[in-house]
Amino acid sequence: MAVCVGFDLDMTLVDSRPGIRATCRALSAETGVRIDEDLAVSRLGPPLEVELAQWFPAEDVDTMAARYRALYQEHGVPGTIAMPGAHDALAAVREVGGRSVVVTAKETTGARGCVARAGLDVDDVAGLVWGAGKGEALAARGAAVYVGDSPPDVVGARTAGAVAVGVTSGPHDATELREAGAEVVLESLDGFRPWFLAWLARHG
Q: Across the chain, which distance is largest between two alpha carbons, in Å?
């Protein structure tokens, strides 16, 4: 059976910060509510509603989340940039007949838009999942490895029984990722191919 590798999206496969900043500015302009976009992009990972709750009353969060996601198609997706090593990491999986899936807290439509904008060669996208919830999505797809940049990503991998690979391309350092249970920590996806091929030779 072909190996399946899961990847987080924001700050793992793509740098979505320019698009998120632009979307925050657009939402602020519409609502008159100031959002500190630099602070928002410094803590990517949790569901959107968690961040919006820092800026809007609880009763408005769901409405603002829906509006943000609509604005994201116009302002956020175009600002998406592939992270260093992302294309090569996906190519390494493809070259051995494997499958790559994106498992992300981002809403699925927005995530698919980012994947397409960055030209990423993936087989499936599962959105609106976070932490242990990512584990359910990974397990359902038979993922043997999950690559992410945050401790909740590591939790998702371990929940699925997948190898937890951390990358320090996001806001969390190697110590945080290892303390969360990451079995492997890479500085970026540039290091994925050699690790993956060596791992596959042992376990494939």
A: 56
- CA torsion 120→38→132→192, rounded to 10°? 40
Lowest mean pLDDT among 16-25, 37-46, 181-190: 37-46
Phi and psi at residue 28, in whole multiples of 5°? Answer: -60, -40
Q: How far is CA 199 from CA 48, 50, 52, 111, 145, in A?
A: 34, 36, 40, 28, 10
CA 101/CA 7 separation, integer angstroms: 6
Q: Which two tokens stand for residue 48?
A: 């959107």
- Whether residue 8 contacts residue 153, with contact meaning beta carbons closer than 8 Å, is answered with yes
Distance from C-alpha of 7 to C-alpha of 128, rounded to nearest angstrom? 14
Query: Within the chain, where are the H helices?
Result: 17-31, 37-41, 48-52, 61-71, 86-95, 108-118, 132-140, 151-160, 174-180, 192-203
pLDDT tens-place string over residues 105-132: 999 999 999 999 999 999 999 999 999 9
How distant, in Å, are the alpha carbons of 106, 182, 188 from that of 88? 23, 22, 11
The stretch 97-101 carries a mean pLDDT of: 98
Q: pLDDT at position 203, please?
A: 86
The gap from C-alpha 23 to its chain's centroid, in whole angstroms, comes to: 18
